[in-house]
Amino acid sequence: MDNKINFSQFFNIANIFSLIAVVGSILFLFFKGLNYGVDFKGGTLLEIRIENKSIQIQEIRSALQIPELGDVNVKQFGDAGDFLIKFEKNANENEKFITELKNIISKKINSAVNFRRVETVGPKVSSELLKQGVTAIALALGAMLFYIWIRFEWQFSIGSIIALIHDVVITLGIFSILSFEVNLSIVAAVLTIVGYSMNDTVVIFDRIRENLLKYSKLKTNEIADISVNETLSRTIITSLTTLLALFSIFILGGEILKGFSFAMILGVIIGTYSSIFVASPVLNFFKVTQKTLLKDDDI
Amino acid sequence: MLSFTKIKVLTIYIILFLSIFFASLNFKNNNLIDKKVNLGLDLQGGSYILLEIDTKPLINQKLQTKVIPIKKLLKENKINFKNFIISADNISLTIDKKKQNKFKSLFFRQEDNTVNNFISDYNKFELDLEFDRDKALINFSDFGLVSLNNAALKQSIEIIRRRIDDVGTKEPTILQRGDRRILVELPGIDNPERVKELLGKTAQLTFRLVSKDDGFGSEKLNTSEDGEELIVNKRVIISGDNLVDAQPQFDSQSNQPIVLFTLNRLGAQKFGRVTTKNIGRRLAIVLDNTVISAPQIREAIVGGTGTISGGFSFQESTDLALLLRSGALPAPINIVEERTVGPDLGKDSIDAGVFSLIVGFILVIIFMFIKYKIFGLVSNISLIANLFMMVGILTILEATLTLPGIAGIILTVGMAVDSNVLIYERIKEELKTEKSIIHAFDTGYNKAKITVIDANVTTLIAAVILFIFGSGPVKGFAVTLGIGIITTLFSAYFIARHLTSVIVLNDKEGKYFKL
User: Fold this and answer.
1) Pick from A78, A102, A121: which residue ends a domain?
2) Taking phi first (over 0 means left), then psi (-120 to 50 degrees means alpha), and beta for anything else, what does residue B300 get?
3) Which of residues 5-34 of A touch B (CB under 8 A)?
4) Residue B425, min C-alpha distance to chain A (Å)
5) Domain for residue A2, yes or no?
6) Chain A residues touching B478 at Cβ < 8 A
7) CATH number, position A115
């Protein structure tokens, strides 16, 4: 053990910090809400490329002042001339709509327009997708809870699940604060975060379990300290390699993967923090000792 | 154990070789084994269209067909009735209370029932009958609705398949999704708007006489040409069901695009009879409640062929002919979800995805080499092997690779080293207390095993749930993530461990042990 950091002395401060972050996130989620993409809100998304690269975003906005589209949102998407357009209208109510819209836009801005991507989701499907996403995340949390309960003791499983909920809530809270768009790929990211954070927590828990059996006289906090220190270099190295991969997607992987990789980067950082500062203190809270392990093993 | 038996080593090499072989299939053509990773619609471009059938009009339509049999049944059995009303989903009528039981027994008669079909397989009737004082209410039973729905869905899938085949799209996928949806996937399609127009049209064609007066038995319909309203007889002379063929052509005189249709024998007879009797009257050709043309009958048409002209463009006449050939959908169909990616965006996505994969990979490799020196090299070799195995398995399964799928591969690269890191860090700890170097490596591998498995199972759980709940591109992510976990375990515990053992066992002087 080269590095001996007394993590447990920060547990209280960290817990207060986490609590504030979680409550803050919940408040944001409750009052500001999430910026749902067409997957969950319904409507139409267009990714367009304009031949005349000097066309400014304001010109696209004014070209799209068509009342029947509803609320229109235009933003730059990658290179000059590439834009992402979202509006409330479901373009599939009329099969010719997209063709007509293309003509209107190219006439108004006086340049050829290429519709590179068109996504239209009806109101029924979008609410189903949202329900599916929430179910998937809830199910993943449940499955993790169950797995840890089988592999460890119930105290560990509560600790890990609190850490997971902490990660998911804060990640979504940050999405709410930044008004980052939430779509299907964000659900995938959140599920991967759940997997990753769990992975991190399991490594530390495994060591805590081992050390609980090794040192019978130490307090839970001391055991947690030793275990976190012993696994610390692994925790850092793995987070670093994963972040290296994620940053390369975020910077080089194209606009479509930006949201996904951003969510993952947040999740990896929060997940690493929570394994050390959220999951472990829960064990201390439940006063997990050698006895807990031995007693439950008998049952 | 650090030592490997010869058979184990051989197996590792065979698996590695097979992985490289299958992975390489993606880069060559004309192989004996025709296996490749499929590109998802988001990478090769194409359309994903989810359709939903609307059975409400169908219910009403089916109820209409019950009207005559019900009235006949009542009259034949001298049951008086009044206030016979058909609404959207039920028929109501007033029957004297004394006769109600008789009607009920006739209505639920198992044999020779012309009104209410008894489906013996399920022991259920198609229709339900309820009485409220002297009022009788007839509607579809739950079972009746389900069977109506299923039949309509099956027929719709068949017709949609014919329409899409007719357009000539390569490798379309048409699948039933749930109990009222149809999923259509059209890879590499040029003009999704045209296909959408073709899919959405019910294409209910009827030939009916134009009436002079707006009375009972006729209705006002819009015309497609000038939007004027035309009073058309409700009685259908022939419908699209009577057609055996339809082809786009040019009219020999006006050189306008027209559609030439051929009727079946029954249709030809009926058409001949009606046109003979009604020379001079106008005949309305109605498509989905819009009159496309209403020419005057100049002479009896007995040959069983005819033409439809309606000021079409050539494309329109081609599409109309296609729709008529493939038949009418039993119920209207709506597009509830559509995702179309153009081929150039797909290519950009592949380029960006692969580029970021390579960069991420190189960064991780450099990092691992700096951190663990020769054992970093071992880890890197197993990482490369891991990548080959992933692609190899994807190829064997002919799985679909999507853009999030590529992200899944990159993420696996980042996370795959975790197993090796866990093991090496463990060995480091062991080396502090253990004198025998070989022993330290051995215990390191063994002690880390449980942790490595626990850690990977949790990610696997997430991948499996994503696979079940995810759709389209997201499913592709779950696939690569899941496969990545399995290959990671293999590469850490077989490939990397084997290479480590070779180094440790051959290095008697212990110069590489500085981890």
Assistant:
1) A121
2) beta
3) none
4) 7
5) no
6) 188
7) 3.30.70.100
What is the nearest CA distance from A233 to chain B, expressed in angstroms?
8
Give the nearest chain A residue to B358 (CA atoms).
A248
Query: Counting every residue, how long is chain A?
Result: 299
Closest CA to B63 of B94, B90, B81: B90
Count of domains in chain A? Answer: 2
Q: Residue A110: which domain range? A: 43-121
Q: What is the mean pLDDT of chain A?
A: 87
Distances (CA, A) of A55 to A48, A192, A255: 12, 39, 20
Contacts of A257 in chain B (CB under 8 A): 352-353, 356, 403-404, 407
Q: Which of A144, A184, A251 lies nearest to residue B474, judging by beta carbons?
A: A184
Contact assignment for A132 to B469 by CB distance below 8 Å: yes
Measured CA to CA in angstroms, residue B472 lies from A235, B46, B47, B197, B401 at distances of 33, 12, 11, 23, 10
Find out whether A45 and A84 touch, Cβ atoms under 8 Å. yes
Q: What is the ipTM of this complex?
A: 0.86
CA distance A267 to chain B (A): 13
Same domain, A54 and A79: yes
Stretch 224-283 of chain A: residues touching chain B, C-beta under 8 Å: 230-231, 233-234, 237-238, 240-249, 251-254, 256-257, 260-261, 264
Give the C-alpha separation, A225 to A213, whole Å: 15
pLDDT at A298 over 50: no
Residues A70 and A196 in one domain: no
pLDDT the model gives residue B367: 93
Q: Which range among A33-37, A66-70, B26-30, B414-418 shows the weakest confidence by mean pLDDT?
A: B26-30
Which of A105, A121, A137 terminates a domain? The answer is: A121
CA distance B407 to B388: 16
Chain B: nearest CA to A258, how far in angstroms? Answer: 11
Model confidence over A36-90: pLDDT tens digits?
A: 988 898 999 999 998 888 888 888 888 888 888 888 888 888 888 899 999 888 8
How far from B387 is each of A166, B34, B436, B463, B490, CA to CA, in Å? 33, 21, 34, 18, 12
Q: Do B257 and B317 meet the contact criterion of CB atoms below 8 Å apart?
A: yes
Q: Which residue of A has its CA nearest to B371?
A: A237
Considering the domain architecture, whether residues A191 and A281 belong to the same structural domain is answered as yes
Choosing among A47, A98, A210, A249, which should be mutated to test the B contact, i.e. which has the most B CBs within 10 A? A249
Q: Which two tokens stand for residue A266?
A: 């947040």
Contact assignment for B345 to A47 by CB distance below 8 Å: yes
Return all residues near B364 (Cβ < 8 A) that are at least 6 apart: A241, A244, A245, B383, B413, B414, B417
The CATH code of the domain that includes A159 is 1.20.1640.10
CB contacts of A200 in chain B (<8 Å) are 455
| A130 shares a domain with A116 | no
Residues near B400 by Cβ (< 8 Å), separated by ≥ 6?
A: B37, B38, B39, B40, B475, B476, B479
Which stretches does DSSP call E strand in B124-165?
Answer: 124-125, 127-132, 135-140
The set of residues, in sequence order, having a beta carbon less than 8 Å from that of A169 and lying 6+ positions away, is A22, A25, A26, A29
CA distance B116 to B110: 9
Residue A184: half-sphere exposure toward Cβ, Cα within 13 Å: 27
| CB–CB contact A254 B455 (8 Å) | no
**Do A103 and A130 share a domain, yes or no?**
no
Answer yes or no: are the C-beta atoms of A280 and A208 closer than 8 Å: yes
Whether the Cβ atoms of residue A71 and residue A87 lie closer than 8 Å to each other: yes
